[in-house]
Every structure is written in C-alpha cells, then in structure tokens.
Amino acid sequence: MNKRNPKDNMKRLRSIVSTFIIMVILSSVFSAEKTNIYSIRRDHLREKIQGRAVLFSGEDGQAVDKDFFYLTGIKEPNFILLITSGVEGDFLFVSGVDDEETIKMMAGISGILNIFPLEQFDYIFTYALSWEWNIYFPSSIYKYDYGYSLVLRISLKFPHLMIRDLSPLLAEMRMIKSEDELEIMKTAIEITAAGLFEAVRLAEPGMYEYEIQKIIEDTFYSLGAERTGFPSIIGSGPNSVIIHYDKNVRKTEPGDLIVMDVGAEYLEYTGDLTRTIPVSGKFTPRQQEIYEIVLEAQRKAINACRPGATLRDIDLAARNYIEEKGYGRYFIHTTSHSLGLSVHDSWIANAKLAPGMVITVEPGIYISEENLGVRIEDDVLITEGDCIVLSSFLPKNIEEIERLMAEKWLPYIVSTF
Fold it and tell me: Can you list the positions of beta strands (E) in 160-256?
C-alpha cells in the first residue's frame, strides 16, 4: 500500500479552493451545457418508453426529487414534468412563476420550451396530446401527498391507461455517471474529506459527539455544500458499534474510538466517507488489531472493483478476509452501495459494474461487548482498468491518523475560501 506524506494530503485537500473557484467561474458555461445534458437524458428515456411519463419535483421545504432534477436540472418545488413519446415534446408545469425572465431561465436550464402554469396540467394532459396507452411514474412520486393524489387523479380519470414503473429505466441511466456528474461528485467528495480532516485534527477527549459533527458540517457549508447528503453519524465508544447511529449526544471519553460517517451534498450530488479515529490520539493495541483487519479487508474489496464484477463480489472480497481473521459475525452490513444524487443511489439488483459507476467500499467490524467499532469507507470510480479511489488523499493509515492528531499541524483554514 502506497504511503503518502501527510503534507501531501494537506495540499490535496487545499486544492478544493481552486476547484471550487473554477466551478463558480464556469457556472455560466455549465448552464448552457446542461441544456444539452438534460435534453439528451429525456431523449434517451423517451426511446425506452411507449407512452407518457409524469414526474413531480417535490414539496415545499424538501430537497428536490432526484429523478426530477436528473431530467430537468431544476430544483423548484411543486413542478410537474410531462415527457411524451410523440412530436409534442416535453412539458414543464410550474407553480408560483409568472415572470418572463424566470421562465426563460428555466427553459435555458432544462431545454424545455413548453412551460405552463401548474393549473393547466389536466387540460393539456387530456386534450393536447396524442393517444397513448402507457403512463409511467417513478416510485418516488408516491412519497409526496400531491404526487400520490396526482397519480390517483390520472388513474381515476383515465382508467384505460396502463400504469408503469419508471424507476428501473431511470436507475439504469443514473448508474452511469457522465463526465459532468463526476466533476461535481469529486467536489462533493473533496468537501466531505475536508470536513473529516478537520474533525480528525481537532477531536479531543471530552468533546461531545455533536461538537465534532459541528466541526465537520461547518466545514461543509463554508466550502459550498448545500446540505448534508444524510444525517451525520458520529458514534463514540459504545455508539461506535451502532451502524446508523445519528443522535450524536454522547460525551467522548479517553480511549474511545469514534466512527465518523458523513457526506456533503454539493449541486445535489453527495459524498459518503467514513473514518474511525482514537479520540485520545493513539490506537490501543487491540484497536489497532481490529483497525488493520478492516483496512486490509477494504484494500481487498477495492482491488475487486473492476468491470464485470458485482457488488456481491466486492462484499465477498472483504467478508472472506474478515471471516478468515475470525470476525465474520461482527461484520453486519454489506460492503458497497451506489453513490450519486442520493447516498444510496439508484441501482439495479445484480448489475455488473461498468465504467462510470461510483460506489462506496466500507467494510466494518463491530464488537459490542468491547464497545469497539471500526468502519473505513471510501468512494470509488469504476473505469475500464483499475478503479480510482476518489477519496484516496484523505488519511486512513494508522500512522497518518496518529500523526495528524498528535502534531495538529497547520490547520485547515476554512476562512480562506
């Protein structure tokens, strides 16, 4: 395993500055390019359906529906997207928008020229389109009150329509990330790494878990993250063995391990990284033993990340090693999941890995009777050859972590961004 100088890792993390600035400067360029991207996605989807598709953007106070965003680039609530398979094109029905400039902006982002008030959806759906038997909805539409009522209203008014599930078709598309998506994801991952870097550097016995959470999330927001991709997990001591612990209320004690599983969401895409650290700054021999097993299991799993493999193959690579070491019953979750617009991004069961996919690799051992939990997670891009660990610059070797915690060398100064 290659070893990096901690100062090299610092330089890599500081490169987020230039990446972030470039993203801001080029935002106008991306907006023009996105028009093409979203139109191409809808055209690709149109080839797969025989009928119409209806998507809902979500409700007030919630993050945008990811499928809706994937096909439009728009984040506003209470919008409907109607995709047709005929010559009519696509339609966007908007709520609370009536000024010409905003409508032009939405047309420019989405590539949709047919933009109407939300109230006109029923009329246009009923009278202005060619006859089609199939109607497709993504499964996510049912989690919204308005979305559920929309499906019910259409199905009652047009009982002859065959309701189809759009989600598998979208999942097939979303599994492969475009170059533009990958650039955004790299930034989200770098921001996530920056938050963890700060936490590793500043964590001390006696801090509350929520204080460590605040260090991480303050770093996220200072670097342009919109929100967290999921509730931050900061599990210390007995909480380190709870996989999805997110209460983050315990006061850390000397000798604790802390499992920090976090993700920054940037331009709707999220990172997902985990590091486990000794709050006192040095692993005990027992902690080091378990940590090294998890680290080697992760290395074996990453080596299995190749085109044609499955997530099960990756899981077995990690699991077989942990079982060989006698800790199989303490590895209580799967090793990998897809990553992208969602932390558990769209995926088709038993899909084979292909270039452009991004997955997590996160083996763990959780020994409740010892209050000893270790998880190490990185985000991995599948390529035609060897995979690329997108978070490889974030320290995870024992000597790197202990050195960072002991020396507290040059702080990662967020105020400079």
Answer: 162-165, 227-228, 233-236
